[in-house]
């Protein structure tokens, strides 16, 4: 096991370097970078102050000063190597546009993403696992057919499309729920009970949009795992010994059927924070990591783009390793040797 963990950790290094290298190379060819944007703003300001004398170009000295301001006066390989040295020390740099440290921005936006992620994760599993068990026990019944149809419909509808529909119907036409934000403008003036109600009132629509499709895979996986275990010989033996159906299901079948579900917990838990929240946060104007990433890409704020990418990739690689190790913890028959 230690040798396997060491190999996986060593493999993370080239994987992480490859992701950063590819994205850094792509950024070099993207038009409208921070240098071009600032040059355009300065030219427009000069034009406005020039009494209509036409658009004036910046001098070469001004252009060099702007490039030095953002660090683009150095060759790309040197900038990439400098970025790697900073990332090795977990220094994600400074935002071009917001003049703040990337770590500081991430800390500011993280609570919103954690809120959405925790609600999505727990609601998905609390609904999906019991539903999958009920579907397996009633396999082939009308309940199984109807729930499967509803699950597939929810899975087929993208979360962004569902979010738009929820906003239009329940936020716009019926006006039952707010259209944006996690809290009301007067949230600080409310009592604690009113704050909780206000918070829950705001997260209903975004959490519903994220949960609708996320629990479909878990529910069907739970059902199929239960059906596979129910057909095995040890279940017939347990029933022949006189155990009740409840004892057979929850003492023997549940333990083995939940192996693929439990081993997927780490990836699902982390993925709930960073996967699929981009469009939802943008749609509902929630100031989280997803919206931060989107705005950084649109504004060409490269330190934030690459910094968040580095963090997300590192978390994803570590989560994948934890998920694989969970197989050994849950099922001792698995041997990585």
Structural commentary:
This protein is an all-alpha fold and 337 residues long. The protein is 75% helix and 0% strand. The protein contains 15 helices and no strands. The chain has helices at 2-28, 34-49, 60-70, 76-88, 102-137, 142-156, 159-173, 192-230, 233-240, 245-257, 259-263, 265-274, 277-283, 289-298, 302-330. The radius of gyration is 26 Å and the shape is globular. It starts with a helix and ends in a 7-residue tail after the last helix. Mean pLDDT is 79; it is low at 51-55.
Instruction: Count helical runs.
Output: 15
Low-pLDDT segments: 51-55
Structure class: mainly alpha
What's the total count of β strands?
Answer: 0
Quick rundown:
With 337 residues, the chain is mostly helical.
List the helices and strands and how they pair.
Layout: H1 2-28, H2 34-49, H3 60-70, H4 76-88, H5 102-137, H6 142-156, H7 159-173, H8 192-230, H9 233-240, H10 245-257, H11 259-263, H12 265-274, H13 277-283, H14 289-298, H15 302-330
Helix pairs in contact: 1-15, 2-3, 5-8, 5-12, 6-8, 7-8, 8-10, 12-15, 13-14, 14-15
Descriptive terms for the model:
single chain, 337 residues, mainly alpha, 75% helix, globular
């Amino acid at each position: 096991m230690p040798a396997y963990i060491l190999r996986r950790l060593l493999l993370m290094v080239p994987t992480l370097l490859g992701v950063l290298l590819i994205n850094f190379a792509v950024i070099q060819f993207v038009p409208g970078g921070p240098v071009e944007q600032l040059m355009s703003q300065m030219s427009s300001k000069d034009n406005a102050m020039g009494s209509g004398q036409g658009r004036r170009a910046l001098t070469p000295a001004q252009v060099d000063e702007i490039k030095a301001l953002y660090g683009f006066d150095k060759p790309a390989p040197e900038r990439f190597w400098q970025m790697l040295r900073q990332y090795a020390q977990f220094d994600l740099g400074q935002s071009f546009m917001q003049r703040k440290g990337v770590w500081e921005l991430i800390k500011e936006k993280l609570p919103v993403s954690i809120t959405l992620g925790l609600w999505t994760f727990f609601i998905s599993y609390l609904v999906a696992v019991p539903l999958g068990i009920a579907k397996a026990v009633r396999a082939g019944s009308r309940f199984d057919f109807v729930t499967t149809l509803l699950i597939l419909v929810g899975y087929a509808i993208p979360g962004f499309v569902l979010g738009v529909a929820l906003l239009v119907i329940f936020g716009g036409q019926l006006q039952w729920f707010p259209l944006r934000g996690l809290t009301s403008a007067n949230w600080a003036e409310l009592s604690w009970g009113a704050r909780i109600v206000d918070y829950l009132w705001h997260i209903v629509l975004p959490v519903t949009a994220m949960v609708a499709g996320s629990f479909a895979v878990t529910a069907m996986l739970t059902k199929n795992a239960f059906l596979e275990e129910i057909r095995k010989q040890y279940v017939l033996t347990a029933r022949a010994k006189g155990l009740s159906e409840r004892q057979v299901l929850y003492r023997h079948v549940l333990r083995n059927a939940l192996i693929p579900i439990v081993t997927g917990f780490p990836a699902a838990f982390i993925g709930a924070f960073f996967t699929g929240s981009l469009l939802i946060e943008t749609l509902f104007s929630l100031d989280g990591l997803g919206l931060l990433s989107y705005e950084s890409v649109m504004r060409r704020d490269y330190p934030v783009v690459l910094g968040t990418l580095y963090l997300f990739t590192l978390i994803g690689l570590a989560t994948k390793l934890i998920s694989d190790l969970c197989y050994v913890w849950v099922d001792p028959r698995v041997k990585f040797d």
